[in-house]
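Researcher: I'd like a structural prediction for the single chain below. Treat it as a standalone chain; there are no partners to consider.
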Amino acid sequence: VQLQASGGGSVQAGDPLRLSCAHSGGTLSTLTVAWFRQAPGKEREFVAAISWKPGATRYADSVQGRFAISRDDAKDTVLLQMDSLDPEDTAVYYCAADPSVTPKEETGSYDYWGSGTQVTVSS
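Model: Treating it as a single chain, here is the predicted structure.
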């Protein structure tokens, strides 16, 4: 499983941004996919996850109501729509995947990790 995160960039506070996670050489449709982020000097933290089972999602409290995770079945990607971005959201964002059905928050629950994409939010 080779995951690739993309869509990061530099934006102003309050702006939106959309990240995408793709799986080269395979499909994400049978995997639970999560987004994590890591800011400088901080531990990697859970952001959101979506199960391969339709309708099952999970969000960190810090992004609930501002971020939305979804699947684009036509493109076989998992999207993270980030609205109302705040400087505190600045981090490298990673996508991760696992065959289990339950979206989990622990980094150890995911077997596959992609490279990160930088998100920088300035005030």
